[in-house]
Write a structure and sequence with these properties.
The protein has helices at about 15-25, 35-45, 60-70, 85-95, 110-135, 150-160, 180-185, 205-215, 230-235, 250-260, 290-295, 300-305, 320-335, 345-355, 360-375, 385-390, 410-425, 430-435, 440-450; strands spanning about 5-10, 30-35, 50-55, 75-80, 100-105, 170, 195-200, 240-245, 265, 275, 280-285, 310, 340-345, 380. The strands form four sheets. It has a five-stranded parallel sheet, sandwiched between helices. The chain folds into four domains: about 5-130, Rossmann fold; about 140-315, 3-Layer(aba) Sandwich (Rossmann fold); about 315-395, Orthogonal Bundle (Helicase, Ruva Protein, domain 3); about 400-453, Arc Repressor Mutant, subunit A, CATH 1.10.10. It has 19 helices and 14 strands. It is α/β, with parallel strands linked by helices.
Length: about 450
């Protein structure tokens, strides 16, 4: 791993020589400058992660240097080096954006702690900036398409729930659109200008999940070479979306319950209490009440998460929306590739008769594949997957002779997973990506459906 880069700015040559050597001994990569003008030039060339800046410099003073560094290299955290007589000036510099100050002569271990804290804030600001670029767009609601009563009931509930700060549990099948529902709740809330942070709980092992959620201190575990803020900190003021909440371990459940109750937590390996203001939205396709009865999920956590429960209807429960969604997806793909392809009436009829065990996500994949395979301007039934074309006509509307003969939802899901697995030639990673689920979730489904070879 590349060492942390530091720019040391001080006009005392002996101090620069001794301090730069000690910092290198601690593992930092150190560049030096003797004046404010040189510091600005060096910072522009090397873009250091932290700057140790003496306030008393010849020529350009420390405050002027700080002002230009903030403008030219805003990603660098500045720690001021000051004497006893200029502490008031150091405090003014902090108001201008410096991270902290130390009084010379400063013990090396204390300076190291200040640098680590500055790097922690830098990492937090960097991650928050990246996440804020992905904030829910203000016109997200326009991408919600549907005319069915089920869809309108869902939209009405979202609008009722969004303005509150209450925890929400979004329940629904894989691919039904749970994350989009969570994003719309965030977009319609008073937190919409703050980050919306997504955490795939099933994609991370327990220790990595705890580190991602709550952060860790330097040396908290093997490989933790620097402190790292948690996603709860990144989401401060906004919303954190915990997808597949049913996959978290009992240990993580206990920690999460404490965060929900107190709005505080500690970094792994840390002792300092960190307070955050975060709205928690969770989602699952599992039977959490059943898991509670089996002792697999904490009852108190379930009640805390499900203050408000939003049920996302499966696509088969709103067949009238299939054509609208297919046309919307086709318009989006046409715009992306500069084409003008449309679904024929016969192809739309095939789409309406499919049971869609993969829900809206499966429909999106089918539409995308059909437009790629279509050479002309009209998508025909032969451009659709064989599993859709070979379905019996009217299969959605016509009931079977007896309930016992009807395929259950689990049967349909098992058949769909098996079909995708075969299409991907048994490659689980590709199968999981096609299904839109994590490999861990796929493995659980393969195990449950006795499909492990």
């Amino acid at each position: 791993m590349k060492p942390t880069s530091i720019l040391l700015v001080d006009d005392d040559a002996a101090f620069r020589h001794v301090m730069s050597g000690e910092l290198r001994r601690l593992g930092y990569e150190v560049a030096t400058a003797a004046s404010g003008e040189e510091a600005i030039q060096r910072a522009a060339e090397s873009e250091p992660e932290a700057v140790l800046l003496d306030l008393r410099l010849p020529g350009m003073c420390g405050l002027d240097t700080l002002r230009i560094l903030n403008a030219n290299t805003p990603a660098a955290e500045v720690i001021l080096l000051t004497g006893h007589g200029s502490i008031d000036t150091a405090i003014e510099a902090i108001r201008m954006g410096a991270f902290d100050y130390v009084v010379k002569p400063c013990p090396l271990d204390e300076l190291d702690v200040r640098i680590q804290r500055a790097l922690e804030r830098r990492a937090l600001r960097h991650r928050a900036t990246l996440l804020e670029r992905g904030l829910t767009p203000p016109n997200l609601e326009s991408s919600f398409v549907g005319e069915s009563p089920e869809f309108h009931r869902l939209l009405h509930l979202i609008h009722r729930v969004a303005p509150s700060h209450t925890a929400v549990l979004v329940m629904g099948e894989t691919g039904a659109g749970k994350e989009r529902v969570a994003k719309l709740i965030h977009a319609r809330s008073q937190r919409s200008a703050k980050p919306f942070v997504v955490v795939e709980c099933a994609a991370l092992q327990e220790n990595l999940l705890q580190s991602e959620l709550f952060g860790h201190e330097r040396g908290a575990f093997t490989g933790a070479e620097r402190a790292k803020p948690g996603l709860f900190e990144v989401a401060d003021g906004g919303t954190i979306f915990l997808d597949e909440i049913g996959e978290i371990s009992p240990t993580t459940q206990t920690t999460l319950l404490r965060v929900l109750d107190t709005s505080t937590f500690r970094h792994l390996g840390g002792t300092r209490e960190i307070h955050v203001d975060v709205r928690v939205i969770t989602a699952t396709n599992r039977d959490i009440p059943g898991m509670v009865r089996q002792g697999l999920f904490r009852e108190d956590l379930y009640y805390r998460l499900s203050t408000i429960t939003v049920e996302v209807p499966p696509l088969r429960a709103r067949p009238g929306d299939i054509e609208l969604l297919a046309q919307q997806f086709a318009a989006r793909i046409n715009l992306q590739f500069g084409t003008n392809k449309r679904f024929s009436a016969e192809a739309l009829e095939v789409l309406r008769h499919h049971t869609w065990p993969g829900n809206v996500r499966e429909l999106l994949h089918v539409v995308e594949a059909a437009l790629v395979l279509c050479d002309g301007s009209a998508v025909l039934p032969e451009h659709l997957p064989a599993a859709l074309r070979n379905a019996p006509p009217g299969g959605r509307a016509k009931p079977t002779a007896s309930p016992q003969a009807a395929a259950t939802l689990q049967d349909a899901e098992r058949a769909h997973i098996l079909a995708i697995l075969n299409a991907c030639q048994g490659h689980r990673g590709n199968t999981a990506r096609t299904l839109g689920i994590s490999e861990r979730n796929l493995y659980r489904k393969l195990r449950d459906y006795d499909l492990l070879s």
